[in-house]
Amino acid sequence: MTATLATGAAPAPPTGPSDSARRARSRGRIIALLFALPALLLLGALVVYPVLFSVGRSFFDASGDTFVGADNYTEMFRDPATLKAVRNTAIWVVVAPTLLTGLGLVLAVLVEKVRWATAFKLLLFMPMAVSFLAAGIIFRLAYDEDPDKGVLNAALVSVHDAFSDSAAYPTARARPGGDLDAGKDGSYTTGASVSPGDTVNLPLVGVAPKDLPSGAAPAFPASGQDAAAPGELRGVVYLDFTPGGGGQQNSVDRQESGLPQMKVEAVRDGRTAASTTTAADGSYRFTGLEPGSYTLRLPAANFAEPYDGVSWLGPALVTPAIIGAYLWIWTGFAMVLIGAGLATLPRDALEAARIDGANEWQIFRRITVPLLAPVLTVVFVTLVINVMKVFDLVYIIAPGPVQEDATVLATQMWLVSFGGGNNQGLGSALGVLLLLLVVPAMVFNVRRFRRSQR
Fold first, then answer.
1. pLDDT tier at 3 (50, 70, 90 boundaries)?
2. CA 122/CA 209 separation, integer angstroms
3. How do residues 188-230 score in pLDDT, each as one tens digit?
4. Which of 235, 254, 354, 445 is most buried by a 10 A CB count?
5. Nearest 5°: phi and psi at 377?
6. pLDDT value of residue 321
């Protein structure tokens, strides 16, 4: 002890448990960093670098050689197509997440009361397994305007035709130079006045023989009958066309067919005095007419175009139609997430409400929805983030002529950069705008998750 003090050497500090714990934490951080390094490298290469490059590229012109500052951002809000994309994106953000959250909530509540709940959930969730490309092709065909191709218009035409008769001769028209004059409403009238006791034949053309009704009979026998009786106005409406050529215009030939089910009106002083429908041979007959001058009219309803359904992919409906396809895909997702939240609700609160006399609607509105508010918020914000980036459905479903009417920010960014615009400076500015719109929703969702974990 004396020797040690004489030499002046200080004793080594004791090694406490805090030092070993600190070294263990340091090793843990290093190991964790090594495990996370591949993911961080991918994140930097696929996310951070493209974002920084796009921000820098947005300050240059189309060639990428000239620095233009904020010109691309000002041009972005002067371009009508970009403003329409912003408007359509706003429609998507408001409509699609709201409908999906509402549908998911209603279906999640109803599924609890279905015996085959698992099978029903699987059926609704199945579209999530379909790629957006395949879903776009499916709905592009479903929305086709031709009822022979588009299933939606085929259904609409079937329902319409079940309650309303379609015109039999949409392509028929009066022969030029004949006795029939075309009206502004699509009808045809006789140029000269007629009177009871007259026989008036009305020739039409433009109907293919194969399109004639199956019961159509030759018009010649009807046109060759005796003259009309006193007080009777008669004639025949016929197809003034002889198969194989020949025949005489404005005259009923032996091989020419009558046009059955054609409505004919006798008009006097601008009002319809009588109406009738032609027989199988095209003949018509008015009896009991008062003496005087009349005009024969073939109403426009005889020549109306057949009902072909709705132009789903026209300028007015293309955005709602695409949103409908999006709902088909994502309704199952919203239902499953909300259903998971519904399963965690305290059943004693629901049972207590029922014991107190609350009906199912009151329980749903005042207990279920308030308790599910955090889950509904997460679902809504997640869908908002998703719809801001929607691209595939819009690009695939919308036909070329209405592509601009359906465009959203993601498709507009692609069109400006690569789809013919070849202005990647403006396209990068659009990408930065889309990023700025998405980031607040992402931050809100992350904070919500962290708060729920606490």
1. very low
2. 52
3. 998 888 888 888 888 999 888 888 888 888 888 877 666 667 7
4. 235
5. -65, -45
6. 94
170 token code pair: 């949409």
CA distance 77 to 394: 21
Element at 110 (helix H, strand E):
helix 80-111
Domains of the chain: 71-156+312-453 (1.10.3720.10), 173-303 (no CATH)
Q: Are 285 and 227 in contact (CB under 8 A)?
A: no
Residue type at 326 in one-letter notation: Y
For the chain, report the end-to-end CA distance as a whole number of angstroms.
57
Please calculate the CA angle 283-285-288 and round it to the nearest 5 degrees: 180
pLDDT of res. 121: 83
Pairing type for strands 271-277 and 263-268 reads antiparallel
Q: What is the DSSP letter of 193?
A: -
Supply 293's token pair: 């001058």
- Measured from the Cβ of residue 325, the count of other Cβ atoms closer than 10 Å reads 22
Tokens at 188, concatenated: 């045809």
Length in residues, the chain: 454
3-state helix, strand, coil in the chain (%, to 5): 55, 10, 35
304, 269 Cβ separation under 8 angstroms: no
Tens of pLDDT, residue by residue over 256-280, are 899 998 999 999 988 898 999 999 9
Q: Running DSSP on this structure, what letter comes out for residue 219?
A: S
Q: How far is CA 63 from the centre of its chain?
A: 37
For residue 383, the one-letter residue type is: L
Spatial CB neighbours of 386, under 8 Å, sequence gap ≥ 6: 330
188 beta partners: 182, 298
- Structural element, H or E, at residue 410: helix 409-417
The pLDDT score that the predictor gives to residue 395 is 92
Strand partners, 146: none
The residue ranking higher by pLDDT, 420 or 283, is 283
Structure tokens at 72: 């691309």
Task: Give the max Cα distance, the chain.
Answer: 157
Q: Report the SS3 class of residue 194.
A: strand
CA 356 → CA 177, 257, 392, distances in Å? Answer: 84, 78, 51
For residue 21, give both structure tokens.
């714990």
CA 239/CA 34 separation, integer angstroms: 87
Cα–Cα distance measured from residue 364 to residue 358, given in angstroms and rounded to the nearest whole number: 10
Bridge-based pairing state of the strands 202-205 and 233-239: parallel
Q: What is the DSSP string of 142-175?
A: HT-SSTTT-HHHHHHHHHHHHHSPPPS-TT-EEP
Residue 421 to residue 358: CA distance in whole angstroms: 61
